[in-house]
């Protein structure tokens, strides 16, 4: 009986934290969508903020979805444990199981289709390079987006500085590249300086960042998977124990 009570308490505490976190995330998501004017006003007060930052409002939908899922899981886990409700515990188990299966399926797809992903990334890279060549320096939104990305990641173009060759910016500035491609120096960013600086492209920079933190990413993923497995085991243990007690 002591073990049963302990499992109930752990189930309640663990899912209570999930429930509160879900409410917080859900609240932030709703606030971002409902009070978007205030969010934009706040962002507008930040100096030198790029106009593309307004796209952060779209994150509200993701926050609402994640928050709602966490609230449901936390509620079912807490109430199922406290009220010893087999129905709630079973629903909790099934939802966590579905999330776990989706995560495993996603990992398998990523591993199984790595060659396809590499081919897709190559096509995306070509499209991004073509987009830079046709619109950078002419399309204000795209130019601002690339500038903010390059400033943040300290990178140049999608692949490297050659992406900007023959772009509207390049042609209108007498064969000059964006200053980010030359380390934001005060000197004109011409071919010679860009070649000597060799600032990495944004895609290689992101790939290097991910590769450098692979262990951390895998550890976090395994930790989440372990917690989900533990939650499923505990919920099913309580479910079976309640069933045997009521029999």
Automatic annotation (TrEMBL):
Annotated keywords: Disulfide bond, Glycoprotein, Lysosome, Membrane, Transmembrane, Transmembrane helix
Location(s), subcellular: Lysosome membrane; Membrane
Domain of life: Eukaryota
Gene Ontology cellular-component terms listed: lysosomal membrane; plasma membrane
Transmembrane segments: 12-32, 59-82, 89-113, 215-240
Membrane topology: Multi-pass membrane protein
Function text: Structural component of specialized membrane microdomains known as tetraspanin-enriched microdomains (TERMs), which act as platforms for receptor clustering and signaling. Participates thereby in diverse biological functions such as cell signal transduction, adhesion, migration and protein trafficking. Regulates neuronal differentiation in response to NGF by facilitating NGF-mediated activation of NTRK1/TRKA receptor tyrosine kinase and subsequent downstream signaling pathways. Plays a role in the inhibition of TNFalpha-induced apoptosis.
Quaternary structure, from the entry: Interacts with SLC19A2. Interacts with NTRK1/TRKA.
PANTHER family: TETRASPANIN, TETRASPANIN-1
Protein known as: Tetraspanin
Provenance organism: Nothobranchius kadleci (African annual killifish)
Gene that encodes it: Nfu_g_1_019451
